[in-house]
Specification:
The chain is an alpha+beta fold. It contains 3 helices and 3 strands, in the order H-H-H-E-E-E. The longest helix is centred in the first third of the chain and has 44 residues.
Length: 154
């Protein structure tokens, strides 16, 4: 009879231990964080990557537009090219995001219409924050923006 009493105690202890695990909530927050944190961090990194890419694209477009507008003051094609190149270099030097050394400047009259002057700026994205992203993401290696302006009005 004594044996039965001890085994029932063990059973009661096992049942009490199992019941306390079912109702325990002490590690639930850690498990929820472990499940949600990687998704949250991936989403946050995506926002940062898109925001920086948008900033580079916008700054590059502003520089190209300013360069095209500066080219209007030139009397002939070589002077327009010189004015547009200097304006692009000035705009890039004043940009907090863009490095002038990473930009290729292409200026000249449009091949299809000689009255249109085109400025193209190409920025190398390999040395920026976006290059830290994993290689599984399809990110571009360069960013190109173009601005054109018609000489002599409409």
């Amino acid at each position: 009879m004594m044996r039965w009493h001890m085994s029932s105690r063990r059973g009661m202890r096992a049942q009490a231990a199992a019941g306390s695990l079912v109702g325990a909530r002490s590690g639930a927050a850690a498990i929820e964080f472990a499940l949600v944190a990687p998704l949250f961090l991936a989403f946050l990194m995506g926002i940062i990557a898109f925001g920086s890419f948008f900033g580079y694209a916008h700054s590059l477009q502003i520089a190209a537009s300013e360069s095209a507008r500066a080219a209007i003051a030139g009397l002939d094609a070589p002077e327009r090219i010189q004015l547009a190149t200097r304006a692009a270099e000035r705009s890039l030097a004043g940009s907090p995001l863009l490095s002038g050394a990473a930009v290729a400047i292409t200026v000249g009259p449009d091949a299809a219409d000689p009255d249109v002057f085109t400025v193209t700026l190409t920025y190398d994205l390999n040395g920026v924050l976006l290059s830290l992203a994993p290689r599984v993401l399809p990110l571009p290696h360069s960013l190109s923006r173009t601005a054109s302006i018609r000489r002599g009005g409409l």
